Amino acid sequence: MKARIHITLKNGVLDPQGRAIASALHALGFNSVGDVRQGKYIEVDLAETDKGKAKAAVEQMCNRLLANTVIENYAIELVD
Amino acid sequence: MKSAIVVFPGSNREGDAKAALKQATGKDPIMVWHRDTALPKVDLVLVPGGFSYGDYLRCGAIAANSPVLREVKARAEGGMAVIGICNGFQIITEAGLLPGVLLRNANLKFVCRNVGLRVETSGSRFTAGYKKGQVLSIPVAHHDGNYFADPRTLDELEAEDRIAFRYCGPEGRLDSVYNPNGSIRHIAGILNKKRNVLGLMPHPENAIEPLHGSTDGKALFTSMVEAVS
What we know:
The structure holds two protein chains of two kinds.
Chain A: E1 2-9, H1 16-27, E2 39-45, H2 51-66, E3 72-79
Antiparallel strand pairs in A: 1-2, 1-3
Chain B: E1 3-7, H1 14-25, E2 30-33, E3 44-47, H2 61-64, H3 67-77, E4 81-85, H4 87-94, E5 101-103, E6 111-119, E7 135-142, E8 146-148, H5 151-159, E9 163-168, E10 187-191, E11 197-200, H6 218-228
Parallel strand pairs in B: 1-2, 1-3, 3-4, 4-11
Antiparallel strand pairs in B: 5-8, 6-7, 6-9, 9-10, 10-11
């Protein structure tokens, strides 16, 4: 099983990298671009067949290491 | 006073921290490698600056979960003094010893220069050698020093007199022009509830000799020694 994890900044947390990306897109002429928020994508291979157990384990991974929940949200997707 | 410095792959200010602790205590601190699980019995642990584990994932996140840090955390909860400088501040914050988080500098630039630093409290073993309101000149050198916490945490820090230092102008005035990284409420350093843990972005260990251009960092190290003896 594989876990696909998206980590994004919470609303209200300043994202200077996102802002820099937005201004670079504007410089390229993409004038329709408004706000840009950037984040992380992590893939984890799991030796686990039970979806419930896998989800619980990945949630723990996110809370303990992969995300800093003071500033970040995470979303988990499990694929076979 | 017995002290130790925790060293990670990618730490780079451990030598400067060692010199500062030696100057203040007269003894070499014990250098502890990140894989060590046994921490010697000491009065103070210093977590130095640098780029531990290449700043992978988030600054300080990997180091915060290393075996030695678990031990540091347990001892800190038991009252031992811990100081985290720069990357060390990021590490002990990620480890949960201090609230909040250090984000990428608001202007996205690596800042390396002396900044004005206002002492916000002398009520700690780290800052007892300074006067409240005193303005220091201490260098910063970081890319991720933009302190952030939710308003409730910030109000709590202020109400409990746990903000140790703020970025300021030469006369102690707070203004965004004097804030090198966009840090919320101009915060440069904070204390934990028990006041035995300090994290700060500036480098007091690089302001201890006239040749450094400032000796304002010296009192921080001598205060810690006096608190123990």
